[in-house]
Amino acid sequence: MPLSAPEPSREAILDFIEEERAAGREVGRREIARAFGLDQGGKIWLKRLLKEMAAEGEIGGDGKERPVHPRGALPPVLLCEIKARDRDGDLVAQPLEWNEDDLGAPPRILIEAPREGRRRPKDARPAPGVGDQALLKLTRLRGVGGFAYSGRVLKVMGKAKAAVLGIFRALPDGSGRLVPIDKKAQGREAIIPKGRTGDAQDGDLVSVSLRRESRFGPPEAQVREKLGSIKSERAVSLIAIHAHGIPHEFPPAALKQAAEAPAASLKGRADWRELPLVTIDPADAKDHDDAVHAAPDEDPANPGGFVVTVAIADVAAYVTPGSALDREALERGNSVYFPDRVVPMLPERISNDLCSLRENEDRPALAVRIVLKADGSKKSHSFHRVLMRSAAKLSYQQAQDAIDGRPDGKTAPIRESVLMPLWAAYGIAARARDQRQPLELDLPERKLVLKPDGSVERVIVPERLAAHRLIEEFMILANVAAAETLEKAGSLLIYRCHDEPSLEKMRALGEVLASIGIKLPKDGALRPVLFNRILAMIKGSENETLINEVVLRTQAQAEYVAENYGHFGLNLRRYAHFTSPIRRYADLIVHRALIAALKLGEDGLPKSTTLAELREVATRISAAERRAMAAERETTDRLIAHFLAGQIGASFDGRIGGVNRAGLFIKLDDTGADGFVPASTLGGDYYRHDEAAHALIGERTGESWRLGDKVHVRLVEAAPVAGALRFELLSAGRTVATGRAGKRRGAVPYGASRPAAPFGWKSKVKPGGNRPGKRR
């Protein structure tokens, strides 16, 4: 009888997982058991061990339906920031994105010395320095010399910031002062001496270099560049563009290539111009990269089924690998959407003309034809390179009105033949979606309506229509089909992945739920349906907003990766972005991979493309996505702060959107504006930050404010350039047991005035042994 192989250590299992993932292979229980020669008893032991390792935060995934991956382990290629030099003069880096609340202190990465030694050739990569962002190829060191990894510099992505952005304010003597645009730097202005102001005029957005700092006064600065006037139309988004280093001017070579691009032809394409595909987009959309069509399946073997067609603009036909357009698109990563402008990934000649699926105009497309069964599940799918012609350009509201029996002159002729089959197909697709049970969060999104001068006219919450859900569901079907096709073909691709929540975040959620009498199950696989059940339980209750916010914060951040680990939020095993190549570089990579894998042309993903190269691309475009999100959010904050700047002293209703030791973050009901109430203004008590409860609690009075609570506030300060608002709390908090007497005290009801704090009183927040809360 053969002897069973010895049980491997946790360290050996983690090493094996990392080696396999580095080679682009997924790892589950079966692969681990095979690698270590485990018999049936060993497999049972392995199942228990992997469950323990997942519970203790060492790995993610269950090893059966979801592949395992080291929790907190770094990918082979990562964007990092070089933080310092150690005592030996070696550069030390840390991951650019790192969640200390979940993962603890960030790992230290030793930058490897250049392979060519001290003498660098003229064409060598630029030498990195402290403060630089660099793309690193990582090697695990397991704590050697205090370092978790060593990193070889693949590319310096951005030099250290030597400049500060701000608004120039002219002084009578010819000098000036710099008003910083960063919220964190509010109140810390710089002096710009006479003769160092350049050609800056009052109100200009400028870039300055700090020349001298003093402990006893503001630093001196010199204007390096005038970027534009803050008084001009659309100036607010200009701040974010420059602050985040977003490329916004196309190089001449890219513009020349776009200008010379030819119109579409039938060469190498199927003629689908008679198929009545329609585009359904926001009313103000300028580019249209997806069109849809549906019809009952005529196959008698599929009764009640539908054939859904999703056609996507064929950007790969114009943006070829390695071209000037391609290099610029990769640098941008994605289009950036501000309330007052769009910074596109591709020139308008491509994005708004040749690749925009305009009504009644011939356009090249990469289309997927999806056959659905009567229960909504997918029976089959196929991809085609086609020439199409959109039969109608519709807005979401226009399409919805037609379905609801209010067609207009454009939708009336196609209501029965085109729109009704689309809604019928969506009806059966929604059944499969409900069966899959993706995460269902109910958090309304606000939209700014601007005046012609770029200022805010009003803030609205657009109605969520069935037309929106229809397009979203069809796009998800197309994205899944793309990922499945490429996996089956053995092709490299870039996935869109979303990890399951960490153990620490789940514990925090459990504590919040326990405070309102809901018990979080401790056993069973983690699935989106768990969160959906919780959200259904609190629907319509006073805790609905609180729990929706906490569940949102429990979720991990989605990212682009070259190695798949699934999409938790959508509850999908494999998922890739395919449907927006005009505005996302990831989709362009997927298009090229499909063209190459299915032999649809010569402009597909080059055969020489390696996994390492796609890892680098995925890292870069994930960082670009986060950059765009931050810039968009900051621009919205600035525009709303401008909108409210004339309402100092006005009072508003809102909710507590965040809590930390420094105070309360308030989100106003009407505008969604975010502002801050410093803890020092809360009243005559010492306030302890209860991180688990997301609350500030007065030690003497027991008065507390918790995430999600309704509040009434007064606006006391607005800094439009920084997008910062400061509020004064007018309503009282709820009461909790103080912890000393154990009894509850009376409180002023919500909406009533609360007594003012004594003049000069500075209340403090005691940490109570808790870590500081995260900044929102």
From TrEMBL:
One of its GO terms (molecular function) is exoribonuclease II activity. This is Ribonuclease R. It is an enzyme of class 3 (hydrolase). 3'-5' exoribonuclease that releases 5'-nucleoside monophosphates and is involved in maturation of structured RNAs. Belongs to the RNR ribonuclease family. RNase R subfamily. It is found in: Cytoplasm. HAMAP family: RNase_R (MF_01895). It comes from Bosea minatitlanensis.
